[in-house]
Amino acid sequence: MNNCPYCNISNNGNDHEIIISNDKCTYSLLQEQEIRGAGIIVPREHRETVFDLTEEEWLATYRLLHEVKLYLDLHYKPDGYNVGWNCGQVGGQHIFHSHLHVIPRYADEKMAGKGIRYFFKTNQT
Fold first, then answer.
1. pLDDT of 124 above 60
2. Motif location (Histidine triad motif) (predicted)?
């Protein structure tokens, strides 16, 4: 997967900054964030979707997610979170290397209180 941007995430010249990692996955923040503290957990091995993760990768992602929450609570102090995967093109996945979005949410943002399914519940579909 030479052209996969997530197979080669590093702190050297790309738009992500690795914050925390373990032997199976990394957590990185985008250099330009739409929401303060928004980042992704990515398996080190190329896996197209969450359904392709090994049991060890699931457990490592789980452990890292809890470390990420502690980090975000300390450094960003969010009021809530959205956490989730997009799977497949129709599911909104744009980079076909599994990645778990960890999105801090804040009471003062314009979309506060609007969860992942908000747009499905409106008449704008």
1. no
2. 97-101
Distances (CA, A) of 84 to 36, 50, 87: 17, 10, 10
Give pTM, 2 decimals. 0.88
Q: Which domains does the chain have, with CATH numbers?
A: 16-121 (3.30.428.10)
44 contacts 1 by C-beta, under 8 angstroms: no
- Which of 43, 5, 51, 39 has the alpha carbon at shortest distance from 23? 43
Number of H helices and E strands in the chain, helices first, is: 1, 5
Closest CA to 99 of 22, 5, 13, 23: 5
Inter-residue contact 36 to 48 (CB < 8 Å): no
